[in-house]
Design goal:
four-stranded antiparallel sheet; single chain; alpha+beta; Umud Fragment, subunit A; 11 strands; 25% helix; elongated
Amino acid sequence: MKIFDRKAHEEEIREALREGGTLRLLKAFFFPKATRKFLLRLTLVILISYLFFRFVCLPVYIEGASMVPTYHERSFNFCWRPAFLFREPERGEVVIASYGSREVMILKRLIAKGGDSIAFRKGKLFLNGKEVKEEYVLLPCSWDLPERKVPEDSYYLIGDNRSMDMKEHVFGAIRKRYLLGAPLW
């Protein structure tokens, strides 16, 4: 059984041109006859789109200013789920993780992996006792955070906008299983 009958569709377009010109042609193109084959194609496209945008490429609305200037508040992106399917995320990569439930996701930068120790002193990030140069942090920061060790099966995530008060940020260690993927852009 053919899913798309090209000859029948071409004949429908030719008939539309003979009978009514451009308007009829547009109607035939955008609203083809609801044949069984057409409905099967339509159902298949809807099913594939649903599965793709539900499990592979999740739409993400960025709410909040914790990733400014890298990602702007009230912008839109997609979470590419296969990003870390065959590899571990690297320090410095932007990732998307679930926060409580899958409907609430956070967009943050991964700064440490399991077993690392991190600290903030006068706004500077220290990873395993050494200062880290963060080119993506453009705004001044005055954070102070005592040294802490990241649990083995976790990542430490934090936003790029460190000019915000620490109390306004959601950051910290998350378990690996809550990592969803990476933003597409």
